Amino acid sequence: MNLFFHVKNIAKDALVYGLSNACIALMGLIVVPILTRVFTPADYGIIALIQTTVSFFIMVSGFNLVSGVFRYFFEYDSFDKKEEVLSTALYFNIFISVFLFVCLYLGSPYIENILVSIRKVNLVPPKYNYETYLKIISFGIPFGFLNVNFLAVLRMLREPKKYALVSVFQFISNFCLILLFIVVLNYGIIGFMWAYSLSNIMACLLSFSFVYKYHTLNFSPQMMRRFLSYSLPQFPSVFLSWGLSQIGLFFINYFCILSQLGYYNIALRIASLLTMLLMTYRLAYSPYAMSIMKDKNSRDIYSGIYSLCMIGFGVTGALIGIFAKPILVILTPPAYHAAYSIVGIIVFGYVFQGSNDILAIGIGISKRTKFISYAQLVAFCTGFLAYLFFVPRFFAWGAAIALSISYVVQNFAYYYFAQRVYPIPYKFKKNLSFVIIVFSLVFINTMLVKNEGFLISMLIATGSSFVVLVLTWFIGMNLEQRNLTKIYILTCFNNYFSLRCHNK
Fold first, then answer.
1. Could you tell me if 49 and 261 are in contact, meaning their C-beta atoms sit under 8 angstroms apart?
2. Quick one: how far is CA 249 from the chain centroid?
3. Whole-angstrom Cα distance, residue 504 to residue 496?
4. Could you say which DSSP state residue 426 is in?
5. In the chain, which residues have pLDDT < 70?
6. Which of 295, 423, 309, 315 is nearest to 357 (CA)?
């Protein structure tokens, strides 16, 4: 098995995805100081609540069809059959996007009543008009839904550069519209919603211009039934997965004052630096993993990639948690600084979430997708009880604890069910131990910087990060992984200097 060959193949696509996600993450950090100085923590929380509510409708309406499209796109070798797959999915998605608009626009008064009524602590101040926010955002939701599916097509076609172009374009347009509507025109939350909708429309038009030629007027009812037979057994898992990641906001909304929503949302924004890495890996890994499923060494390849990813995710997550306070001090006003201690808790859970795609690959290959729903159900029930216990006692911090517990349980469940249907020799216990060790340092660092200013926090974080890197090299990695890392770094340097010499 030449693990380096397969890692390099994934890395080629991941590099492009990664550069686009790095640009988005960088610009996202630029947006944070703008929004946190315009919006109070309560305003910030309201925005998160509206976005989460809308994401629920998108998730329910999609029927998880994209997973079936992915599976059958790689099932066929004929280009005509691949076109049939994509075209059938397109017609379904157009219908769903129109349905979404009608539901959100006409149902906005009823959704507002629900959001206002599910608050135990106090009433929502009259300055917040949920109905208006929902009606504005409903114009962009159909285009956002279609754009996500067009981006999935680009992933299937292994077109990471075009995918990256659309993603970066969408974020830049959103950033410019935020500056216009919020900073220049001072439209507040309404301006944020208009920026979201218009950027979705613009990105959808661009992504469609890349993929329209792969679609025909052909709609196949038979193909649609195949999609649904593959996707629907997983649909409960999609619902439960959404619940795991988003339900914390609703618990905070019910039990806590609105500012706690703001703390939790800003911590999620900082933790999203790790999710950018996870997304980069997922975008490149999923199609590649399916493309090598017939390789006789595929199980060993999946195992090797899993170990490398857990090390990479664990170290990156730990560094984000360690530097959370200096980051927040730089980016946000003092009203948000208390959220730094939430970040480490969230990224701990994200590390486990990030490896789920690898652990569950055997379920997808075996087509026993009901086990994905079983795993999600176990995680959701555990998470729901955890939210119910921790949020009333620890507020936003309790939601972060419950989120991490959910993802750890989810990870164990995926491993258990996947090994039953398609055994893969993962080094599960070894990687679990490594993540626990490095995050113990994160939580020690969080306590050490509690009462410190920026400079001392930065010095402590630097020392902690050095210890994490040393532990990773000598404890987290085995000899093969250290050699692989050396080869990869040397290859990158050689490619860089070769390119410079060629340009000269």
1. yes
2. 16
3. 13
4. -
5. 1-28, 119-126, 283, 488, 491-504
6. 309
Complete DSSP assignment for 384-405: HHHHHHHHHHHHHHHHHHHHHH
DSSP-assigned letter for residue 218 = -
**Nearest one of 290, 19, 279, 271 to 148, comparing CA atoms:** 279
Burial (Cβ within 10 Å: 0-12, 13-18, ≥19) of residue 112: buried
Distance CA 284, CA 357 (A): 11
Residues contacting residue 392 through CB under 8 Å, at least 6 positions apart? 255, 398
Q: What are phi and psi of 416, to 5 degrees?
A: -65, -50
DSSP code for 126: T
**What 8-state DSSP symbol labels residue 334?**
G
Q: Would you state the structure tokens that stand for residue 9, as one six-digit string? A: 């193949």
Both structure tokens of 376? 């999600």
Retrieve residue 466's tokens.
């050095």
Domain parsing of the chain, residue ranges = 3-497
Handedness of CA 129, 132, 136, 138 (dihedral sign): positive
Using the Cα atoms of residue 471, residue 472, residue 477 and residue 479 in order, give the sign of their dihedral: negative
Rg (CA), the chain: 23
**Rounded Cα gap, residues 313 and 353, in angstroms:** 10
Q: How far apart are CA 310 and CA 316, in angstroms?
A: 10
Instruction: Dump the DSSP string for 18-79.
Output: HHHHHHHHHHHHHHHHHHHHHS-HHHHHHHHHHHHHHHHHHHHHHTTHHHHHHHHHTT---H
Q: How many CB atoms lie within 10 A of CB 225?
A: 12
Q: Which two tokens stand for residue 307?
A: 């170990």
DSSP state letter for 220: -
How far is Cα 353 from Cα 233, in angstroms, rounded to an integer?
A: 21
Contact 187/181 with Cβ under 8 angstroms?
yes
Cα angle vertex 54, ends 50, 60, to 5°?
150
**Nearest residue to 445 via CA among 357, 350, 338, 325:** 325
Helix (H, G, I), strand (E, B) or coil at 355: coil
Give the E-state strand segments of 347-494 in sequence order.
none
pTM for this predicted structure: 0.80
